[in-house]
Specification:
The complex is a heterodimer. By secondary structure, chain A is an alpha+beta fold. Chain A contains twelve helices and eleven strands. The chains are: A alpha+beta, B alpha+beta.
């Protein structure tokens, strides 16, 4: 084995020696000319022999690779570079921040918390009992005032707080295959504890589907019912590929504990958009989910009457419920954070750029001056 | 004292050096070995007892020592003779002379031991052997080996013992030796019936000759490979995590997903192992299917190697490789000589002679059916020993090492040999010796493991927080748990499960499970992938080190070799370099330079060019005889030696007069007293076309010998007209001025490290018998003839002159040998011969007996003269040493040479300078050494380690504090001085890098440079006794340490002295077998592929062709490797921690349930696919400075000493940075998407991309050298991450279906990524900029200088000169 290795080396050697000689030659040359010796000496050497063609270039780049001498970009943080970088980051961030701020400010948002208000005074002490009692009507009316002009589309969201849709037990309790293939897919162990009811499989199974939100909202605007478009609120991909077109709800919400909304067994899952929206479990414990879209503009100071049925039980865990009407900008909803953060970063970068300019002017350091090398300042070796 | 002690000794010795692995050196055993090594050196008791001497200038000191030494010689030689006479006269009387030192006691013991043995202790010995089982047998065997083992003279030992063997059959056979019965009676002897493999293998099934170096077969591959792989702790960790994840309550990841990393790693490693094994299989198959001629019936037929069996008779032709270990029966040479090349075994390229026994050499194996029985020892790995005997033709013949040829050797210069197989296949010595050197672990890796412990603490804390939070949350929601929509403790169905608890095991268990599952989620906090990346990175680094053309040695065609892949980065932190002298600093190509004959010095004028000499000799025919003779002769030696015409003239005088006779004998001794084999390259007829005539080229004689010194001497003798023409076992032929003389060799005592001389007994044609001796001056001057009255003046004069010449030679750095001779009377001859025969056939303690026999004749010698051989320094050695020293590396030279030689070599390689204060320690007793040390310390104000100031680096090191070795001064910056001067006053080198840093010295000695010169003799006392700390204190305060006359194991002892007391990295570099122990002891062992075989290379971690490459290896590659690996480790810590902490923050938002927003696959891919390639590429390819800069400013190497690339402070800084980055990473999206419809997978997808972009941009910020590959790796891995996400999001089965497509449509997503990257890296960038601008490190400045210097035209001239220097160096 050893001998084989040696042979390989021998075969390669001539090229190597050739290269060494070439490089030595270049080194001599550069020293004679008094030019800077640099890492790229070998490559500049090969450039001298352009006529020798591609093969040679390949050779020399392979050689440069093995000798770790390939032409390279070696950035150095010179003051100029640093100041430029800070300035450019600043000049990128500040406009973005301003734009984002404008966008965020342009969004009009109506938020109405109704979970407490919608419970009759008598039940306020025992909300859970109220919500669990099927015999009591859960209807509730809310009056909303439009603060300023809202341009269509106006998005209607419901917002839940302290609802840990991201709890591990909750997130895992679903079967995406069942959603797609329906009863044909039987391995739904992940759906526990909502896997089967009455000995029959549940479609859609799992806690997520089981806890489907079931408050409903009806808007009346100037005594005319405001149409809320509840189509296309889910992702297109969900409607088309993720939820089966011939999968129908089966044995759903038939257990002794009803979690939330019931589904119409006649409508395939691919059209149950509320379910789709709900099944996209939220990332954070407080979240909004799209309920529908109002497709007419609302003027400032207009009054909206909301007839809602307050069915969903968030009282057992102290969750809040809100109704949100919001327009959308290019950046999404009303949220100043990104804008503020961008502005902060941008301005601090510019500040630092100025600081560095100042420091550099006051205390210039010659860059790359070997006399600054601590090792050269005082020779320890005689 | 007779029989007990030797065994005791040997056991001690074998303890310390078993063959399997280099053991930790124990003090007791070590001292024991030192004794053997230094017995003779103890005779030279030259000392400086007072300190004034040491302080005085060197030359004075030397003169002083000379006069003293002469006195002591006299004393010593008288003592010696007394001793010898005692022994001589009465065999059983033990000498009463007592020496003071332990060594001489030992020597005395050996003498008496050996002398009484024939009479008394032989039976005791054999009895002992019989009692002992195999293991004790092994012990004593290895002990025997050790006594000569690690010395570089082993080969001499073996080769000349063969000659000794050959003598055996010339003399009349003596009665069979008592010891021969050992083997026959020993149960575990091996019986081989010659030419009867069936019977041989009948009782015991000996292994066939098939070899298998492969580890696996197709069937055993999977289980065995898995078993071996799971020896690594990392894999066990993977396995445990994966196993935990399989438990239902803990299933954080999908089951298959969690197995992926483990399976991936196992799979990759298995493929690598499989490929390697397949290659081994292939080479095995090739090896096994080679063919050899085997005697079947009455003819030799070809047979595959693998079918050869023990007991068969083989015929091997010239240049064939020997398939198995076999006892030589016959060779094409009538006297039974065969030459083999043992390159594959011990790496020595010269030929070794092997002998067939005379009894078997005449048999015709094809025509007559031979029978015989060989009893031999069980297979063992000692290639220098073989003990067996053979019953052949009714005789019992002892067999030794010289009768056996080993597998792997090649037959050379011999047409054919016939031999019988004794060991085959795996049992051959070659196979038993193919062990890998033990692996070392790098220092940085040790630190890394310490930080890994910290990381596990973090891991534990995070898991505890999660578990605690979980407990708290559950407690608070206890009453609602049953019905919480997102928890649901109970089943509410109508089945039998109704009301049962679902996945709930009670609060304590839930907490516990929560803890475990968070361990699973946070598992990559412990960067297991780092171990794999590091291996790959080192592999890549090795590739570049091996491929470096500037470390390629054209003269020996040897590339740099990386034999160990674990300690690349250690090369960047070496503080001590221990180097051997001969062959390492010097070329080990000896050249005969000077001769002192009969008190006359020759060779001063020998620097004349050959041509010139030719001219003068032609011009004066009377004197030009020698040149004529040479040109007339039909032969010439291969190497040409310049001759001194004066000496030539002397040799052409009539053979009368003392001086002339001395000169004659001088050259006779040179030609005869050696083990060199002349090999004649046959006459060739060549055509010279330009002349159109045929002429005969002279025969070229190539001298093959084990020691380059001997070769040089023989060549020199030849140049002066004494040409060694032929050497057989019984005689030598010397061509003396064209007249061939045949001298009978009656006996030969080879060189050994105890006697330090060799002698040969020859009978001249005129029947006179002479003993010719050559050896070290110390060993010869002791045994010269006593000066008789009438010749006193002259004789003493000659001795004085010779002595002066010797000193002169040593001062010039020449290696000296002294030659002496004596006539033997018939009586002496008789007595010696008898004793010699007994000793040389002895199976046990042979070398001790021979040593004792030698002392019979090696006495009362007449001094002939001395030789000076030059061992030239290798190219670039002084420059390399200078650079290393500037780099803050301490170079210690450990040599076997004399003090004077060592000092002169030290001067010539710029190790020593003339204005250095030399402290010389050469005591001959413990007390003396102690005093010398104490005086030196007092004089130079060296304080013991304990008194050092608290922030001294050393203090901490010595306390072996586990905390970071860190000098606050390293980092504290007197920033106040900065704004005014504009100068950055960092920690200064002055205090940091000077050797004086180790000693808080008296101010006056601050400028003084100290050099410590210590000899092996003193080392014996010092290393053995509790003087070690004293020596240590002294040695570390000295700039240079030279140890002369050190034995191999002492070298290891010196290395250990430093290694065990400091945290500093040590590197040992050597080329010979005597350096093996040192190489294995040091943190990094470097072998030089030189003239002395491959043992050093085999034991080393790195091997190279020339010493000067060490400079490049350390300053360039070591620096790069250290920087790279240091950064790699820190970055990997950061990379994994930032990811884990991001997950951790999220878990705090999920009611402490261990949810991960990232998909399972992304979590697994993160460290395997998304971010692994750039780190590895950067770890291999990044470099901060070009090699030119590094070589120009050797002090940049100090970065490694100060642990600038990796230390505790950097670790904590990185961790704080990690904390910030993870917070940014988590909270920016959190706030940006607060109160939005963002779903968990979109958020996870954003985090995945953000973290991958972040860590890659972080890496990009730190990359110092961008080449295409770096770009591809870095940006490519971001692209690959996107591709993976797109693929994962395109599978409808996953809940995260289509997330990325949806997400990427919104500008918020991109804005988030941008903001995260900028905000997270801002502090780091700021810190980096501030540090680089205002407190730049040396590396930074050098880097700026290197890159930006084009703009500074002012320093152009400076550049030009430095680059010219550059060109000169290469």
């Amino acid at each position: 084995m050893k001998s084989r290795v040696c042979m390989g080396w021998l075969q390669r050697r001539p090229v190597y020696q050739d290269q060494v000689l070439k490089e030595l030659h270049v080194e001599d040359r550069s020293s004679i000319l008094g030019s800077m010796d640099n890492d790229e000496a070998s490559t500049s050497g090969s450039n001298l022999e352009i006529h020798s063609g591609f093969r040679n270039t390949l050779h020399s780049s392979v050689y440069g690779f093995t000798q770790q001498n390939l032409p390279a970009c070696k950035p150095v943080l010179t003051p100029g570079w640093v100041i430029t970088m800070f300035l450019s980051v600043g000049f990128i961030c500040i406009p973005i921040g301003v734009a984002a701020l404008l966008a965020s400010q342009s969004v009009v948002e109506i938020v109405d918390r109704y979970d407490t208000e919608c419970i009759p005074e008598v039940f306020r002490d025992n909300k859970v009992a109220y919500i669990k009692d099927d015999s009591i009507s859960k209807n509730c009316t809310r009056i909303l005032k439009v603060p300023s002009y809202m341009k269509a589309p106006i998005y209607v969201y419901y917002q839940l707080d302290s609802f840990y849709q991201n709890h591990r037990r909750y997130v895992k309790s679903r079967s995406d295959r069942q959603l797609l293939y329906g009863l044909k897919y039987t391995d739904t162990a992940s759906c526990k504890p909502e896997e089967t009811g009455n000995g029959l499989p549940i479609v859609p199974c799992g806690l997520v589907a089981w806890s489907l939100f079931n408050d409903t909202y009806n808007f009346v605007h100037e005594s005319v019912e405001l149409k809320v478009n509840r189509k296309n609120i889910a992702w297109k991909s969900d409607r088309e590929h993720k939820f089966g077109k011939d999968v129908y709800p089966f044995n759903f919400q038939n257990g002794s504990l009803i979690g939330g909304a019931k589904l119409d067994p006649q409508i395939p899952l691919s059209e149950q958009e509320d379910l789709m929206v709900w099944m996209r479990t939220a990332a954070l414990p407080s979240f909004r989910k799209l309920y529908g879209v109002i497709e007419i503009d609302l003027d400032a100071d207009e009054i909206l009457t909301v007839f809602l049925s307050n069915n969903y039980n968030t009282y057992s865990f102290g969750g809040k419920k809100r109704l949100v009407l919001s327009t959308k900008s290019w950046l999404g909803g009303k949220n100043n954070f990104l804008a503020v953060a961008c502005l902060a970063v941008g301005s601090s970068c510019i500040f630092m750029a100025l600081l560095f300019v100042l420091l550099h002017v006051r205390n210039p350091r010659t860059f790359g001056d070997p006399t600054y090398l601590t090792l050269d300042r005082k020779s320890n070796f005689a | 004292m007779t029989s007990g002690q030797p065994l005791l000794f040997s056991q001690n010795a074998s303890d310390s050096l078993s063959l399997d692995a280099p053991p930790p050196l124990k003090r007791g055993s070590f001292s024991c070995l030192c004794r053997t090594g230094s017995v003779s050196s103890s005779h030279v008791s030259s000392t400086f007892s007072d300190l004034d001497d040491a302080q005085s200038h060197f030359v004075d000191a030397k003169n002083e020592s000379l006069s003293r030494r002469k006195l002591s010689w006299d004393v010593a030689s008288i003592g010696e003779r007394d001793l010898g006479r005692n022994l001589y006269e009465s065999e059983c009387t033990f000498p009463t002379t007592r020496f003071q030192s332990a060594e001489s006691q030992f020597f005395q013991h050996v003498l008496s031991e050996c002398h009484s043995q024939p009479a008394q202790s032989v039976s005791a010995f054999s009895g002992h052997h019989m009692e002992h089982d195999k293991s004790s047998d092994l012990l004593s065997r290895s002990a025997l080996e050790i006594s000569s083992g690690p010395s570089m003279y082993i080969p001499t030992d073996t080769a000349s013992s063969s000659r000794r063997e050959k003598l055996n059959h010339q003399r009349t056979r003596r009665k069979s030796w008592a010891n021969e019965d050992i083997l026959s009676s020993e149960e575990n002897a091996r019986f081989i019936h010659i030419n009867d493999p069936r019977r041989t293998n009948d009782k015991y099934e000996f292994t066939g000759n098939e070899i298998r170096t492969s580890k696996y077969t197709v069937i055993t591959f999977l289980p065995k490979n898995l078993f071996i792989q799971f020896h690594r702790v990392a894999y066990i960790y993977f396995l445990v995590i994966a196993a935990l994840n399989q438990l239902p309550p803990l299933a954080v990841f999908g089951r298959t997903v969690s197995l992926f990393p483990l399976l991936f790693v196992l799979f990759v490693t298995a493929i690598k192992d499989g490929y390697e094994d397949w290659r081994r299989h292939r080479s095995d198959r090739k090896e096994n299917n080679r063919e050899a001629k085997v005697l079947q019936g009455a003819r030799f037929y070809s047979k595959e190697w693998k079918k050869i069996r023990v007991g068969e008779i083989l015929k091997i032709h010239a240049d064939e490789t020997i398939p198995c270990d076999m006892v030589l029966l016959r060779s094409s040479d009538p006297s039974g000589i065969a030459y083999v090349q043992t390159m594959n075994l011990d790496g020595e390229s010269n030929l070794k002679t092997r002998y067939a026994r005379q009894e078997t050499a005449s048999t015709d194996y094809e025509s007559e059916h031979v029978t015989g029985l060989i009893r031999c020892e069980q297979p063992n790995r000692n290639i220098y020993e073989f003990t067996a005997n053979m019953e052949f033709g009714g005789q019992r013949i002892p067999l030794g090492q010289s009768n056996i040829v080993l597998r792997g050797c090649q037959l050379k210069n011999t047409d054919w040999i016939i031999g019988v197989v004794v060991y085959a296949g795996q049992e051959t010595k070659a196979m038993l010796n193919s062990a890998i050197s033990p692996s070392k672990r790098s220092k940085l890796e040790g630190y890394m493991n310490r930080e890994t412990l910290w990381l596990s603490v973090f891991l534990f804390v995070m898991c505890a927080v999660v578990a605690f939070g979980m407990g708290l949350w559950l407690e608070r929601h206890m009453d609602r748990l049953d019905t919480l929509p997102f928890y649901r403790r109970k089943y509410f169905t109508k089945g039998q499960e109704n009301g049962k608890r679902y996945n709930y095991y009670g609060l304590p268990l839930e907490i516990f499970f929560s803890f475990l599952s968070s361990v699973i989620v946070f598992q990559i906090m412990i960067p297991i992938s780092l171990y794999i990346s590091m291996e790959l990175v080192r592999l890549g680094q090795s590739y570049f080190m091996i491929g470096d053309t500037r470390m390629y040695d054209c003269s020996s065609d040897s590339r740099f070799q990386c034999r160990s892949l674990n300690i690349n980065e250690d090369l960047g932190q070496i503080r001590y370099v221990f180097c051997d002298k001969t062959g390492t600093l010097t070329e080990n190509k000896m050249e005969f330079r000077k001769a002192s004959i009969h008190g006359q010095n020759y060779g001063n004028s020998s620097y004349l060019a050959d041509q010139q000499m030719q001219d003068t000799s032609e011009g004066r025919p009377g004197k030009g005889g020698i040149a004529d003779t040479i040109s007339r002769q039909r032969w010439k030696p291969k190497t040409v030696v310049k001759v001194d015409p004066e000496l030539v003239a002397l040799l052409h005088k009539e053979l009368v007069g003392e001086e002339r006779i001395a000169a004659h004998e001088f050259f006779l001794t040179l030609a005869a007293c050696n083990t060199v084999i002349p090999i004649k390259t046959g006459k060739r007829l060549s055509t010279d076309l330009s002349f159109g005539e045929f002429y005969e080229e002279p025969v070229v004689i190539d001298y093959q010998g084990e020691s380059p010194d001997e070769q040089a001497l023989v060549c020199a003798a030849s140049a002066y007209g004494y040409t060694l023409m032929e050497r057989t076992s019984g005689h030598i032929v010397i061509d003396i001025h064209g007249e061939e003389q045949r001298l009978d060799v009656l006996g030969l005592h080879e060189f050994d490290s105890v006697r330090k001389r060799m002698s040969v007994v020859v009978r001249f044609p005129d029947d006179s018998v002479k003993v010719l001796v050559k050896g070290a001056d110390s060993s010869i001057f002791n045994i010269l003839a006593e000066v008789t009255d009438q010749r006193e003046d002259q004789s003493t004069g000659i001795r004085c002159a010779t002595q002066n010449h010797l000193n002169e030679y040593s001062l010039q750095g020449l290696r000296t040998l002294v030659l002496a001779s004596r006539d033997l009377s018939e009586m002496e001859l008789e007595e010696w011969f008898q004793s010699y025969q007994e000793a040389s056939t002895s199976l046990t303690e042979r070398s001790a007996k021979l040593r004792q026999t030698a002392s019979l004749i090696e006495c009362n010698l007449n001094l002939l003269g001395a030789t000076g051989i030059e061992d030239r320094l290798q190219d670039g050695v002084p420059e390399a040493i200078e650079s290393l020293r500037q780099a803050g590396i301490k170079v210690w030279v450990l040599t076997g040479d004399k003090q004077e030689t060592a000092i002169s070599i030290g001067l010539s390689c710029k190790l020593l300078t003339h204005h250095m204060q030399q402290i010389i320690i050469n005591g001959s007793s413990e007390e003396e050494c102690k005093n010398l040390l104490a005086d030196a310390k007092a004089n130079y104000g060296i304080k013991p380690q304990g008194c050092r100031s608290k922030n001294s680096k050393w203090k901490k090191n010595i306390d072996s504090d586990q905390t970071e070795v860190e000098n606050p001064n390293d980092y504290v910056t007197p920033g106040s001085t900065f704004p005014k001067t504009g100068l950055h006053l960092r920690y200064s080198f002055d205090t940091e890098d000077l050797p004086e840093q180790y000693g808080a010295k008296v101010a006056s000695t601050m400028n003084q440079q100290l050099a410590l010169i210590i000899d092996g003799n003193s080392l014996v006392y010092i290393l053995e006794k509790d003087l070690q700390p004293e020596l240590f204190d002294l040695a570390v305060s000295c700039r240079v340490v030279l140890c002369c006359r050190v034995a191999p194991l002492q070298k290891a002892g010196v290395v250990d002295l430093i290694k065990s007391r400091t945290n500093d990295m040590t590197l040992a570099i050597g080329d010979g077998a005597n350096d093996v122990s040192m190489i294995q002891m040091a943190d990094v062992g470097v072998g030089i592929c030189g003239q002395e075989g491959r043992q050093a290379v085999m034991a080393s971690d790195f091997a190279m062709g020339q010493f000067r490459f060490l400079k490049r290896l350390l300053l360039v590659h070591g620096h790069w490797n250290y920087q790279r690996v240091g950064y790699l480790v820190l970055y990997n810590f950061y990379r994994n921690a930032v990811f884990v902490m991001m997950l951790f923050w999220y878990i705090l938002c999920t009611a402490f349930s261990t949810t991960s927003a990232l998909t399972d696959w992304s979590s697994v891919f993160y460290s395997v696919i998304y971010t692994s390639v750039p780190t590895i590429v950067v770890g291999i390819l990044d470099k901060d400075l070009s090699h030119r800069t590094l070589l120009r400013y050797p002090k940049l190497y100090g970065a490694g000493h100060r642990q600038e690339s990796y230390n505790m402070r950097l670790f904590w800084l990185t961790m704080i940075d990690t904390l910030w980055q993870s917070l940014v990473l988590f909270y920016v999206p959190l706030f940006a998407y607060r109160n939005s419809t963002i779903d968990i997978w979109s958020m996870g997808s954003l985090w995945t991309i953000a973290v991958v972009v972040l860590v890659n941009v972080h890496l990009a910020m730190d990359i110092q050298r961008w080449i295409l590959i770096t770009h591809i790796a870095l940006w490519g891995s971001i692209v690959i991450t996107y591709i993976c996400l797109v693929v994962l999001d395109s599978i409808p089965d996953f809940p995260n279906y289509w997330t990325i497509y949806h997400l990427a449509l919104f500008p918020t997503y991109w804005l988030n990524i941008l903001l995260i990257t900028v905000l997270a890296l801002l502090p780091r960038f700021l810190l980096k900029v501030l540090q680089q601008m205002f407190w730049p490190s040396d590396i930074q400045i050098a880097r700026e200088n290197e890159i930006l210097k084009r703009r500074h035209l002012g320093v152009k001239s400076d550049e030009a000169t430095s680059s010219r220097q550059w060109g000169a160096q290469w």
